[in-house]
Amino acid sequence: WAWAKDGDGQVVLLSGEPGIGKSRMIQALRERLGDQAYTPLSHYCSPHHTNSALYPVIGLLERAAQLDRNDPPDAQLAKLEELLARSSDRPDEVVPLFAALLGVATGERYPGLALTPEVQKRRTLQALVDQLAGLAARQPVLALYEDVHWIDPSTLELLDLVIERIRQLPVLVLITFRPEFQAPWTGQAHVTALAMNRLGRRQGADL
Prior knowledge:
Blueprint (H helix, E strand, L loop, with lengths): L1 H4 L4 E7 L5 H12 L5 E6 L10 H11 L7 H13 L5 H12 L14 H20 L4 E6 L6 H13 L5 E7 L13 E6 L4 H6 L1
Parallel strand pairs: 1-4, 1-5, 2-3, 3-4
């Protein structure tokens, strides 16, 4: 975290069996950071959405924007615009992409996206990476990706871009997963792999 705060972006891969304490480790880290100024970004993968494109990202954005699907479309759009204004100086370009991702109607305020699905996906992923960089320009970012053994392919593709981009940003990316997941990011200089193993008999007795 100290290295990341200084602009030397870091990635930590935290693996361990179910119930061994990965989430507790994250809680301890956040407690340790105390009242430091930083932006937390929490992404949660789900076993029920392994084929839902960018499911953890959509959940994060909905929480951050406080979207209420019972609100009128213009109110939802206003909340999305307010959220993106914190990280982008080109809202006219990114709002339609994020609105399409979240299923928020833009009405006549923005032109429709006349893009092929592949181009729209590529631009959306790039906009998400740019949003992270925009947030990091304001203050350090702690980006959590939990239970990545259930990650969907699109979010995995996004993570590839994020891990490459943060090398010179004040960002710590912390990724948790079970041992059966083969993390493709090991071996990079800014990536640290930590495995949480069961305590031995003597360690357990000491505890």
